[in-house]
Design brief:
- With 353 residues, the protein is an alpha/beta fold.
- The strands form 3 sheets. It has a 5-stranded parallel beta sheet, with helices on one face.
- Helix 11 crosses helix 15, helix 13 runs antiparallel to helix 14 and helix 14 packs antiparallel against helix 15.
- The radius of gyration is 25 Å and the shape is elongated.
Length: 353
């Protein structure tokens, strides 16, 4: 009997062994239900071909050709990734809207003897739940934001808090971007839908009765937008302010961005993108510091002239409600551990007004 998704928790509470996304690789790459593996019933090219035949030739021919292609692809999966499953294996499948691809795939698995089932409405039913959570309804979770100028170790502290049992959501980690002009990482950013799925999964796992700590961000991380329900909750959330001396922040930032400073060409290209904001003369000074390997001085100059003024302007536009201020004199291990302990105690005691 098809599984009906009434909540995001329902898919993982269902009694199945493997969640299988039978859509094409491109569909899977854009977004999928967290935890699903990809076993496409049709490749990207096959899906396009069947769709063209359906629209321009005849639906009957499209279904016939599609069925032949699905049968061949399922046979390859049976000889490959599914070969090791015994008779008790219970897979759950989905396609775009719970139609022909997942149904055909399920029928073959059922004929073998496996108790295969499908998700009613497919991926679209799941996506509606994500949109409902992150776009249409107020987020039920109590948020606390870690706020501080660039280089105050906010992401590092999130990880330390998680290790202490505090509920955290690492927005930059989920977005695969460190949230600034210099924030790109080696992995590409997920698609917007994929980012929202990761967010929905993270908040579904979090207990709304306990606070969730996040890093204060702008509404956009790299090219990914924070969905409206989350952004509204973040704008209203109280903050813990982190403060550290400029020199300490510069040293910390130079260490944290060692991957970028190790690539002089990438660093130079990123600095050039600041010319419209600061002019060629100032950017030339920064380029000279980069060329000399003076990365601490470069970080200090960037924070003084570019990042700190932007943080101050944002706070003036939306004055935050600070729960506490935590000073980090050196941003060394001992400082960060003490700060994490204090933040954990604040989170445990936090009760909304």
């Amino acid at each position: 009997m098809p599984l009906t998704l009434d909540t995001l928790e329902a898919v993982h509470a269902a009694p199945f062994d493997t969640l299988i996304d039978v859509r094409s690789p491109a569909e899977y790459a854009e977004d999928r239900i967290p935890g699903a593996i990809s076993l496409p019933a049709l490749s990207d090219a096959e899906r396009a071909r069947v769709g063209t035949i359906y629209a321009r030739q005849s639906p009957f021919d499209a279904r016939k050709i599609g069925a032949a292609l699905v049968a061949r692809n399922v046979a390859a999966h049976l000889d490959g990734p599914l070969a090791g499953h015994d008779g008790g294996w219970k897979p759950l499948l989905y396609c775009w809207r719970g139609g022909q691809r997942s149904g055909a795939f399920r029928s073959i698995l059922a004929q073998i003897g496996w108790r295969a089932d499908v998700i009613e409405g497919g991926y679209r039913s799941y996506r509606r739940l994500v949109v409902d959570m992150l776009h249409d309804r107020p987020l039920p979770h109590r948020l606390i934001l870690l706020d501080g100028n660039t280089g105050t170790a906010k992401t590092d502290l999130l990880h330390r808090l998680s290790a202490r049992g505090v509920q955290v959501v690492d927005l930059e980690g989920l977005a695969a971007h460190r949230g600034s002009l210099f924030g790109a990482v080696a992995a590409p950013q997920p698609a917007q839908k994929g980012f929202e799925s990761a967010l929905a999964h993270a908040f579904t796992r979090a207990d709304p009765a306990r606070p969730v700590v996040l890093e204060a961000e702008s509404s956009k991380i790299g090219e990914r937008l924070l969905p409206p329900a989350l952004w509204k909750a973040m704008c209203a959330a109280p903050r813990i302010r982190l403060a550290a001396p400029l020199a300490a922040r510069a040293r910390y930032l130079a260490r944290s961005y060692a991957d970028l400073t190790a690539d002089p060409a990438a660093l130079a290209a990123t600095l050039d993108r600041l010319i419209p904001f600061h002019g060629r003369a100032r950017v030339a000074e920064w380029q000279a510091l980069a060329g000399q390997g003076a990365h601490d001085r470069l970080a200090a100059g960037l924070m003084q002239a570019h990042y700190d003024p932007r943080y101050d302007k944002a706070r003036q536009a939306h004055p935050p409600h600070d729960l506490a201020r935590i000073d980090l004199p050196a941003l060394e291990e001992a400082d960060l551990d003490r700060a994490a302990g204090r933040i954990a105690r604040i989170a445990e005691a936090f009760a909304p007004a």
